[in-house]
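User: My instructor asked us to take a sequence, write out its structure as tokens, and then describe one feature of it. I'm not sure where to start. Here is the sequence I was given:
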Amino acid sequence: MALQSSGQISLNDIRAELGASTTNVSLGAMSDTAGFAAQDKISDFYGYSAGGTSFSAGPKQTSSGFACFQSQNVTYYHNGSGSDPASNDYIYTDSAMTTIVGSGYYRCDTQAFEWFRTNGFGRIFSYGQC
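Assistant: Let's start with the prediction itself. The structure tokens for your sequence are:
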């Protein structure tokens, strides 16, 4: 269940959404777990859901050229706030967001791009058009 989109959010609310331990709760650690960029703030968690948003893309490829010719028939999950993945989102193979995708190129038609590239941590760091 997602956190509320406005009003007061406690560290315990965030911890519960993430399914984190009740010991050593810190905003920094929870922000890292959620994939947020530095300058940690509780407001980043408005509307946040620990369950990933699903989308379809092609299987991992070694170049954008190969990715562009792939069918988008694989379900992945991202941790971003929109329905489509975006730059700096983390991409996972499961809805619990426990397994990141491998480093590579993936076909994924969005309003912003037609392929994206992930690093070894599953984060989108480049993208482009076919």
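For the description part of your assignment, you could build on this observation: The first strand starts at residue 53 and ends at 57. Try explaining in your own words what that tells you about the chain.
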